[in-house]
Design a protein that fits this description.
The chain is mainly alpha-helical. The protein has helices at residues 8-15, 21-37, 45-54, 58-66, 70-91, 108-117, 121-143, 145-152, 159-172, 175-205, 222-231. Helix 1 crosses helix 2, helix 3 crosses helix 5 (70-91) and helix 7 (121-143) packs across helix 9 (159-172).
């Protein structure tokens, strides 16, 4: 089957020698979204309308700061702060309303701040495309035998994305194909989690003086691979 534009990121991730191809897809989307945010787009009115309104989470604010485009980030944050100040000036004048005998309704300004805390331009941009990437995994598994071979040859997935694929298969696939997918997914998860666990065990054993001259085998990077498997953390 001829490769389509939307299948390329998925196939490229599964072509890599990595502990979780789904993590790779998400990291690539985050990188592209950070670059987009501080690229020429930040001067476009439609983009700034959104960034002014919803801002960024703490994690992506740090990532944006690391990009070294200090002027671009300052301009984005300045108009975002203008929007926040305007909203708070309006909402702070509104008193909190009683919510009943046992529950007091939050003040409008508190509700606004909590909503702002939970919103992020980069997160939203990533999630919108990431969902399509995950859907493409199931599409390729159903339609392409070559991808099924590639999927089965991977090194499994982190906890989060193992569960995501398991849950998604319930609705994306059916019958024998669903059963085959879940069996393959479970085997991949367990076999590769045990592999990384064994590498981590040997990593700890190497600190025993009796193993000082023994080879490291595949354990030198066992700790960062474990963090990726368990917590989806790329260090």
């Amino acid at each position: 089957m001829k490769e389509k534009l939307y299948t390329i990121p998925v196939n490229e991730a599964f072509d890599l020698d990595c502990e979780c191809p789904v993590c790779v897809m998400r990291r690539n989307l985050e990188k592209a979204s950070i670059e987009f945010t501080l690229g020429p787009s930040y001067m476009e009115d439609d983009v700034r309308l959104v960034t002014d309104r919803i801002g960024f989470c703490a994690n992506h604010s740090k990532e944006l700061y690391r990009q070294q485009n200090r002027l671009g980030l300052a301009l984005i944050l300045k108009t975002h702060m203008d929007e926040m100040i305007k909203e708070v000036e309006l909402l702070a004048k509104k008193p909190a309303l009683g919510g009943g005998l046992f529950k007091k309704k939050e003040a409008p300004v508190v509700e606004y701040m909590k909503k702002l805390e939970a919103s992020c331009f980069v997160c939203k941009r990533v999630e919108d495309v990431f969902e399509r990437h995950v859907a493409t995994v199931f599409y390729l598994y159903e339609k392409e035998a070559d991808f099924r071979v590639k999927f089965a040859a991977s090194k499994g997935f982190c906890n989060k994305h193992y569960a995501m694929l398991y849950e998604g298969a319930q609705s994306a696939l059916s019958g024998k194909l669903q059963a085959e997918f879940l069996e393959t997914l479970n085997n991949l998860y367990l076999e590769n989690m045990k592999r990384v666990r064994d590498d981590l065990e040997w990593f700890t054993d190497k600190f025993d003086y009796r193993n000082a001259d023994a080879p490291w085998k595949n354990s030198q990077d066992a700790l960062p691979r474990t963090l990726l498997k368990v917590n989806s953390i790329d260090v």
